Amino acid sequence: MLSSVDINNWIGRHLFDVIPISTAVIDQDFNLVLANKAFEKLFGSWEAKKCYRVYKNRDSMCTFCKGAAAFEDGSPKINDEVGYNKQGKLTRYIKHTIPIKDEDGSIPFLIEMAIDVTETEQLKEEYQLLFEQVPCDILIFDRNYKIVQTNQRAKNRFGPIEGTYCFEILKNRTSRCEDCTAHRTFENGETQTGRSTVVDKEGNKVELLVTTVPFHEEDGKFDFVLEMAVDITRTLELQDELKLANDFMTSMISSSLYGTIAVNELDQITIFNDAAKRIFNVADPQQLSNEDLTEMFPKGFMDTVSVSDGPVYLADTMAKTENGDSFAARITGLNLKSNDRYMGKAFWVRDLRAIKKLESDKLEAERLAAVGQTVAGLAHGIKNVLTGLEGGVYMLNSGLQKGNAERSQKGMEMLNRNTSRVSTFVREFLSFSKGQEIEVSLCDPVEIAKETVDTYAVKAEKLGVELISDLDTQLQPAAMDSEGMLECLSNLVGNAIDACMLSEEPEGSRVTVRVLEENETIIYEVIDNGMGMDYEIKKKVFTTFFTTKGLGGTGLGLLMTKKIIQQHGGKVDFITTPGEGTTFRIVLPRERLPKPAKSVVKTEQPIPQSLS
């Protein structure tokens, strides 16, 4: 059994090394003269080194050295220090400096004990950082619902509220709320979530999403609750705004005269407004499949929309109702995407049945109006013819009475000429006025122009007029009345040659016949460098029974041209400059060309009362 002397001896020999705290002895020159194993483990080798070299990796004494102060006043010191461990990493430690005094009161040595708190301080800092910087308000309550601690975010919102009751400062109440989440957590020890309306330091109402959890729980017991509150005021406002926008869009789609259809990413129909139901004669859109929709749209349209990056627009096409009846429509389709994510498709449909009917009526009205204008001038034309006939009869009779054969011959020529003019006049007028239907078939627009040029080539050559062809041979066939179009171009080319011959300088006369296509529109141009037309003539070209050819014309050529072009859904106009020439231009949009007889689609669908 060890005696007290043995124990003292063991302590003297071993206690210094077994102390689990870094312990070292320094002399008055700040040399490390002794250190235990815990010190070596934390700071590394120490023999023959200054304390500031080992602790701080410095070459000179610290500016505010606590050891120097202890040597001077002989009192122990406790302070927080930051130095370097043996790996060269920053280390935080609490250092106790204890003076060792001799019998005469001098202090030859100091004992320094360093407790490493690096990890503890780091955890403390991380906790505090998390507590202060977490993006929500944090409040800690005791069981009396008194606020004992808040983070900086809560302080910014509510001010200095620690020490107050939550229901008083946040709700202006005298007792806790009935649906208090903190109360429920105190009761069952479980996490609780709820909504809360509070008042901030500015007096503004704030909507919060609140979560409460037990705080400092030991053995299932706790006296505090931690509350995390997220401001959802703006979220709720956005929710209301989104609902309003959704209601607005729903109302617009529902009341739109355009058929509006949408399918989601699974190709399920999600929108089919009232206009679409009416246009496609659909009673229950929920019964429609994507295949049904594909059948109702033009062939290949859905596939084209699927691979397109932008809108697919069919200005004039044919669609089908649910029961298979065809009708004219204007359709736009669009792939719906968000950040390259496919969301579905949207379609807008306009019913063109009523518009087509109006266009047909308008063309007929324009034709009849032209007839009316012609009839208005008919009296003047007949009067001129009758005057010529009367003159011829007078010349013939007077020649016969006087035995003047030459005078009688001139009278007969006048009669024959005016009789021929009457025949031509009546024939062209009847042809123009009776409104006969054009005979449409697929034909080559370029061949019509070639035939016209060939027809007038000999006449132009004899008159010294250069007849030029400028033809786009890549044009696709189009639905036209080839004879009617040939008559139109013949009228224009014949007029152009005559205009060149009436020019003050007929030498160098030139007529160009051009055919091209722009934006799905076929264009014929007849360009001459002849006499041109002044303002008065321009006003009468299409509107009266008018000719510039004297007795050689009836004034119906351009009116016939206008009628035929209108029957093709196109228009004819011109630009002219007196003395420089005239350009006549026939414009024929392919979408408005009449359908060939074999492909005409008849429909029994009623014409809508409104244009959709």
In short:
This protein is α+β, with helices and mostly antiparallel strands and 612 residues long.
Mean pLDDT: 83
Task: Kindly report the oligomeric state of this protein.
Answer: single chain
Shape: elongated
Secondary-structure-based class equals alpha+beta
- CATH topology term of the largest domain: Heat Shock Protein 90
Query: For the record, what is the CATH homologous superfamily label of the largest domain?
Result: Histidine kinase-like ATPase, C-terminal domain
- Gap between N and C termini: 114 Å
- Quickly name the level 1 CATH class of the largest domain: Alpha Beta
For the report, how would you describe the main beta sheet? 5 strands, antiparallel
What is the annotated CATH architecture of the largest domain?
Answer: 2-Layer Sandwich
Strand order of the largest sheet: 2-1-5-4-3
What gyration radius follows from the Cα positions, in whole Å? 53 Å
Helix content: 40-55%
Number of extended strands: 22
Structure, explained:
The chain has 612 residues and is α+β, with helices and mostly antiparallel strands. The protein folds into 5 domains: 4-122, Beta-Lactamase, CATH 3.30.450.20; 134-236, PAS domain (Beta-Lactamase, 2-Layer Sandwich); 256-351, PAS domain (Beta-Lactamase), CATH 3.30.450; 357-433; 441-592, Heat Shock Protein 90 (2-Layer Sandwich). The protein has 18 helices and 22 strands. The strands form 5 sheets. The chain has a 5-stranded antiparallel sheet with strand order 2-1-5-4-3, sandwiched between helices. It has a 5-stranded antiparallel sheet with strand order 7-6-10-9-8, with helices on both faces. A 5-stranded antiparallel sheet has the order 12-11-15-14-13. The protein starts with a helix and ends in a 23-residue tail after the last strand.
